[in-house]
Amino acid sequence: MDATSRSGLVRAMECAGSHMRGRGACAGPATLRCGSCGAVRYCSRTHQKAHWGEHARVCARMADQMQRAPQLYDFPFSFAPHSTRSLEAGETTLCCLLQSWGVHGEGVWVASCDCQPPASPDTVGWNLPASSCPCTAPDFSAAAGQLQSWEEYYNWRGIPFHSPVALVLHWPLSLYHALWLSPILTLNLKPREALCIHYLGPERELDQLAVFAELLALLPSLEIHIEFVGPAVPEARDGECLVFSTFARCADVQCTCKKRDSVSKGSVTTRLWRGLYHDRYLELGRVPPDLIFGANAGIAAFPSWHPSIELIESLDVPALFTDYCEEAAVLAVQTIQNGVHGNHPSLAFPVQVNPFRQPLSPRDKVLDLPTFSNAFIFGFYGASSVT
């Protein structure tokens, strides 16, 4: 359950010792922090002492992760510092922020909060003026080399830093960053060449597919095919295919993005598959893909990942994943490296900060660790490719 409910109230952070058996109910809100790491909270000294045997194994590691907070909270956006502090303190909600920008429940923003119904597949508008969103092709066909930060991206696209578009563009930009970390974009892909991506475990992305059209600007002239596979795909949308050859449109009636001839030289094709990756893999058409990518994967938290990881380990394909905080990424790596059926893949892409993480803390933080959607990225090659 998200920290911000439909009523707009913010849930108090959970006591880390609340699950300990035989310790009784929590004495009150979790306001007592661990004095060593500062990453976990407790309702009382009793629960803190009961939990110490478990927490002691990770306390020093979490303390190191907390030291990276200044880097994680560093964004070029004018709205990020105040908005994040207000969200974390419960002084505002994401709904209120979206309303202040005039985008609440509109276009590509409809899935950004829980009070809105799912978007229709043809919902493609930014509901922002052209000057504040990427609704047309950039002045030149591609960025000069790899874009490595939000600042570089916003400057390249000519978007002011008060624009909130990064709140949804973190999906395609994180995928773009994963493509650069893998060897794929160093292979001098030719115009019209097809690039196939298996995107695992999508959730909110399913109602914001139009933002993936930004790959038309980032990777111009390519035919990009993204197979979205996950149990969150609604049964009614299983097999749905959408082709994007234009960008999400702005709110300006006279903008050139409304012209029929504003079509990219490439295209982004998305197709949805309901179910787990290992169950649907052979149905996906072109296998193996060029890249496997999972956003906010939660590999350590969900045992259903294990057979999919076993499958991925058997493929000669780069697989990259993101998670909300560094601890979740570290635990995911441990799960991967423990191996399945004796395989121990090489961690070709160690845990690192994703420069294109979402710039606001999520509503469902359970730790005081720096936490953002797509915050950290890591990955491996299948065992067959390890030399």
UniProtKB/TrEMBL annotation:
<keyword id="KW-0863">Zinc-finger</keyword>
<keyword id="KW-0862">Zinc</keyword>
<feature type="domain" description="MYND-type">
    <location>
        <begin position="12"/>
        <end position="59"/>
    </location>
</feature>
<dbReference type="InterPro" id="IPR046824">
    <property type="entry name" value="Mss51-like_C"/>
</dbReference>
<dbReference type="Pfam" id="PF20179">
    <property type="entry name" value="MSS51_C"/>
</dbReference>
<dbReference type="GO" id="GO:0008270">
    <property type="term" value="F:zinc ion binding"/>
</dbReference>
<dbReference type="InterPro" id="IPR002893">
    <property type="entry name" value="Znf_MYND"/>
</dbReference>
<keyword id="KW-0479">Metal-binding</keyword>
<dbReference type="Pfam" id="PF01753">
    <property type="entry name" value="zf-MYND"/>
</dbReference>
<protein>
    <recommendedName>
        <fullName>MYND-type domain-containing protein</fullName>
    </recommendedName>
</protein>
